[in-house]
Amino acid sequence: MSSSTDPAPMPSAALAPGTNAPDFRLPSTPDQLVSLHEFRGRPVVLVFYPADWSPVCGDQTALYNELLPEFHRFDAELIGISVDGPWCHLAFAQERKLHFPLLADFEPKGAVARQYGVYRSQDGFCERALFVIDAGGIIRWSYVSPVGVNPGADGILAALEGLAPKEKTK
Amino acid sequence: MTKLTLAVTDRDHMQGPAEAAVTLVEYGDYECPHCGRAYPIVEELRQNFGDRLRFVFRNFPLTQVHAHAEMAAEAAEAAGAQGRFWEMHEALFTHQNALDTSHLVQYAGRLRINAAQLGEALTAHTFRDRVREDFMSGVRSGVNGTPTFFINSVRHDGPFDLPSLTEAVEGSAG
């Protein structure tokens, strides 16, 4: 692909804490679009993962699915992103009974992953990367796991706790 | 290096002496086929190491993937309250395809556990908080799937076949 399709300079590594989280607008279903700014006012956990259906992603999404009540205690929204298309996401989410949105970074392929510095152009998919974004849209924590390693959720929960010294306990 | 955040204490179900050189903690799900494969491996490991190894099992049910995992975990805890945790643990891992509530109550009967009492605990979810406490301690310790093992509080990231676990346990035994 020619670089003329993505004129903005792209970060070479995952965006660091303190950076403004680049806004985006991506399909969550074949007929719905979701923008990051819609969640302004609440923390967002962005989960970039290489592909639907691959075994490690399966475990990772299953774990996060299980932990949604914990994320919601921080009023946080969890969002998955991969380069899979919306129909693929739909089938994956239905089969795994996932209760959080999966966004399709499908066209132009990996554009959002590139903006966040987590696209693997040699592979054609994104890194297994986590970003915790605060209510004001600032990245407060980021982590890139080796592609084959499920990063778990301990880092996400610790980052969310860091955002909210007075966690909601209801 | 990922470490166990909740230390092993009297709250835990354990097999083997407290002064054993190595403590192996498993976070597992009774409906998970990988945990089912790990069960006989852990049994063999325990036999081979004898008093040098202490084994602890904590619940990590992935309830959205495994419809019966939560109730099975609560049943093990309910059996534990009657002093029969490990008997139920074995029954669950050797009958992973039959973990609905009626089977759980049947196993209790067979194991000379008060089945009515166990049934009531399942209905009232008496042990739900306990299972959740196990689960969250796992999440905080970096459990990312099942089974996840910790050897002397350090997460074991390698495979869990008998030779690999044996080597890892030997390595920690010093």
Q: Explain this structure to me?
A:
The complex is a heterodimer of chains A (170) and B (174). Chain A is an alpha/beta fold. In chain A, 26% of the residues lie in helices and 24% in strands. Chain A has five helices and nine strands, in the order E-E-E-H-H-E-H-E-H-E-E-E-E-H. Chain A has helices at 55-66, 68-73, 86-96, 111-115, 154-163, and strands at 25-29, 32-35, 44-48, 77-82, 102-104, 119-120, 125-126, 128-133, 139-145. Chain A is globular, with a radius of gyration of 15 Å. Chain B is α+β, with helices and mostly antiparallel strands and 174 residues long. Chain B has a single domain (13-173), classed as Glutaredoxin, CATH 3.40.30.10. The A-B interface holds A 59-60, 62-63, 65-67, 70, 96-99, 149-154, 157 and B 2, 62-65, 135-136, 139-145.
Helix content of chain B: 40-55%
Highest CATH level, the class of chain A: Alpha Beta
Which sequence of strands runs across the widest sheet of chain A?
5-4-3-8-9
Approximate strand percentage of chain A: 15-25%
Output the CATH homologous superfamily of chain A.
Answer: Glutaredoxin
Please tally the helical runs of chain B, counting DSSP H or I stretches of 4 or more residues: 7
Number of domains of chain B: 1
Largest sheet of chain B: 5 strands, mixed
Subunit arrangement of the protein: heterodimer
Order of strands, main sheet of chain B, comes to 1-3-2-4-5
Decide which structural class fits the backbone of chain A: alpha/beta
